[in-house]
Amino acid sequence: KIWQYVAELISKPRRKKVEVNLYKIDKYSKDGDTILVPGKVLSIGNVSKKIKIAALKFSKAAELKLKKAGIEIMSIKELVEKNPKGSNVKIII
Fold it and tell me: CA-based, 20 to 30 A from 92: which of 19, 53, 62, 68?
């Protein structure tokens, strides 16, 4: 069910696409979480927790900040392959 919901979010028109800043991801996550953003991750803010983030796209600045912080980033396709059931995945919109 989770992957159907993500597919619906991704297939929305471009003007309704999800964009999430790093500070929002930090606010709603805990250490060890797997976060899914069905859109683009933007670079405003920082992430201070050890998490994994999967997204449709990452801005270049956000990608640099996340790599410096030692956070694992991946595409949504990679997350589906690693976790086909979608257990313990938080969706941030």
Answer: 68
